[in-house]
């Protein structure tokens, strides 16, 4: 590949991360890195990194990368937000149903406990003990 090694005086350090943010989430770490092209256009790399162990106990990192270029930012963010909204609304509905079920179960238990407590105590009338 002719000219590949010749970077026209472009120094590699200019292509290092301009901004980097690491987010730990459970067993995964997500890296959001802003880099620049040779023409100084910014792009985003999103890297998911997971630590994996082999049979001998040695570990390595499994990485998956997504490159997101500025011409795709708007459509990508719209799609991501739409998916997140869907998940949140679906989980809210599920949580609301679960919450109603839990509340109903708690009410039944409370009524049962009150009934058992009422049966455990007998109504004792004290007669005049001054005989």
Which residues sit in consecutive blocks of at least 5 with pLDDT less than 50?
Answer: none
Arithmetic mean of pLDDT: 77
SSE arrangement, N to C: EEEEH
Tell me how many strands there are. Answer: 4
What is the first-to-last residue Cα distance? 118 Å
Name the quaternary structure: single chain
What percent of residues are in strands? 25-35%
In DSSP terms (H or I, runs of 4 or more residues), the helix count works out at 1
- Alpha-carbon Rg, integer: 32 Å
| Shape label | flat
As a percent range, the share of helical residues equals: 25-40%
Query: How would you write the strand order of the largest sheet?
Result: 1-2-3-4
Structural class: alpha+beta
Mind summarizing the main beta sheet?
Answer: 4 strands, antiparallel
Structure description:
By secondary structure, the chain is of the alpha+beta class. The protein contains one helix and four strands, in the order E-E-E-E-H. It has one helix at 73-120; strands at residues 19-25, 28-36, 42-53, 59-69. The protein has a four-stranded antiparallel beta sheet, with no helix packed on it. Strand 1 (19-25) and strand 2 form a beta hairpin. It is flat and about 75 Å long. The model has no long low-confidence stretch (mean pLDDT 77).
């Amino acid at each position: 590949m002719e000219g590949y090694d010749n970077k026209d005086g472009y120094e590699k350090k200019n292509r290092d991360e301009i901004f980097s943010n690491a987010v730990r989430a459970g067993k995964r770490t997500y890296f959001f890195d802003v880099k620049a092209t040779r023409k100084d256009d910014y792009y985003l790399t999103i890297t998911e990194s997971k630590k994996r162990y082999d049979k001998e106990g040695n570990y390595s990192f499994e990485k998956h990368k997504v490159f997101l270029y500025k011409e795709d930012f708007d459509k990508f963010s719209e799609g991501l937000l739409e998916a997140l909204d869907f998940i949140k609304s679906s989980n809210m509905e599920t949580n609301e149903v679960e919450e109603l079920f839990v509340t109903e179960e708690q009410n039944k238990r409370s009524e049962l406990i009150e009934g058992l407590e009422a049966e455990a105590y007998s109504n004792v009338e004290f007669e005049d003990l001054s005989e």
